[in-house]
Amino acid sequence: MLGSKGPILNRAVVQYVTGRRIFVEGHETKSHNFFRSWGLLPRAWVDIHLLMSLARSDERFMRAALKEARRALGQTSPNPVVGAVLVIDNRISAKGHHRHAGCPHAEIVCLRDFGNTIPAAATLYVTLEPCSTTGRTSPCTDEIIKAGLKTVVIGTVDVNPRHAGRGVTLLQDAGIKVRVGVLTEECTSLNEAFNKWIVTGRPFVVAKCGMSLDGRLTRRPGESRWITSAAARRHAHALRAQVDAIVVGAATVRIDNPRLTARNAQQARQPWRVVLTRSGKLPRHARLFTDRFAERTLVYRGKSLRTVLTDLGKRNVTSVLLEGGGEMLGQALDARLIDKVQVYLGPILTGGPVLAFPGRGASVTQNAVHLDRIGYQKLGQNVCITGYSRFPERHPRPE
Ligand code: AOF
Ligand code: ZN
Question: Which amino acids bring their CB within 6 angstroms of ligand 1?
Answer without folding.
Answer: 79-80, 82, 98, 101, 105-107, 128, 130-131, 135-137, 140, 158, 160, 163, 198
